[in-house]
Design brief:
By secondary structure, the protein is an alpha+beta fold. It has two domains: 150 residues, no CATH class; 100 residues, GIY-YIG endonuclease, CATH 3.40.1440. It is 24% helix and 26% strand. It has eight helices and twelve strands. The strands form two sheets. Strands 1, 2, 3, 4, 5, 6, 7 and 8 form an eight-stranded mixed sheet that branches. A four-stranded antiparallel sheet has the order 9-12-10-11. It is elongated and about 65 Å long.
Length: 279
């Protein structure tokens, strides 16, 4: 028998017409997402969720007693993060800051504020239960009585996606800030040679990480100022480079040895002639 999310709601006596399903999936500055907000700061996530567009059509959509909230992890799945009892309070405060964007909520439109109280019902499934949302991912608010979502997985406990391995890691720099902490720990402890590729200009740059913070520290420098001190990158408009790892150095490799590895990769990829390297 296929298990459905509405079975769980019905078992708790929650009337299906009174439930809206919310799949939070917006990507904010520096790759911040509702998932990373929920993972790192539940209060910030709930504040973000409490602010919704104030136009009459949206007010009608959100006019329900309960919100069943879901977020999208980096792998694109749909993860349950709580059942909330909801009531509309009125217009959002003018100086209220959106935790996802870091900007005042009403600077990009008019928002309502909702009181959202996390309920004990279904709390055992928070961070563990995954549903199949379906193809209509742009329709991020749906009625439970019209959409009986299939349950596809129930984990023993909340767990971040596993580190994909050095050869499989391909990430936009804008996602570095919100990577799982376990991934950051691996990258901070590892050094070697990496590649930055610009999808906009189709150019690439070979770099090396040999400092105490490894790959992570080097990439965070690019996120901070868009060029990391490199001449070739400073001459270009800021871009969201895609970063990958070309070679991991041994744990006892010296800075000079890693720089030599970098020089060899520059030769292989012709990054001085066809790319952004200037030395």
């Amino acid at each position: 028998m296929t298990l459905r999310f509405n079975m769980l709601l019905a078992a708790e006596g929650i009337p299906l017409p009174d439930v809206r399903l919310l799949r939070h999936q917006t990507v904010g500055p520096r790759g911040r997402t509702p998932y990373s907000l929920w993972r790192d700061d539940r209060a910030a996530f709930e504040l973000y969720q409490s602010m919704q567009a104030a136009d009459p059509r949206r007010q009608a959509v959100f006019a329900a007693r309960y919100w069943a909230s879901f977020v999208t992890p980096p792998d694109g799945e749909t993860l349950f993060v709580g059942l909330y009892q909801v009531s509309r309070l009125g217009p959002a405060e003018p100086d209220l800051v959106n935790p996802l964007t870091g900007q005042p909520a009403n600077s990009t439109g008019h928002y309502d504020r909702y009181a959202c109280t996390l309920l004990p019902q279904l709390s055992a499934y928070i961070g563990r239960l995954f549903i199949r949302w379906g193809e209509g991912t742009r329709s991020w608010v749906q009625r439970a009585d019209n959409q009986d979502k299939e349950i596809v997985a129930l984990a023993r406990a909340f767990r971040e996606p596993e580190f994909p391995g050095f050869s499989q890691l391909i990430q936009p720099l804008s996602d570095i800030e919100t990577m799982p902490p376990s991934w950051k720990a691996v990258l901070r402890a590892s050094r070697g040679v990496y590649l930055l590729a610009c999808p906009r200009t189709r150019e690439h740059y070979v770099g090396s990480a040999y400092g105490s913070d490894g790959f992570l520290g080097r990439w965070e420098a690019y996120v901070a100022n868009s060029h990391g001190g490199n001449v070739g990158l400073r001459m270009r408009d800021p871009s969201d480079y895609v970063v990958s790892i070309l070679e991991v150095a041994g744990s006892v490799a010296t800075a000079e040895e890693i720089i030599a590895l970098e020089a060899r990769w520059k030769q292989k990829l012709l990054s001085r002639d066809m790319g952004l390297n200037r030395n």
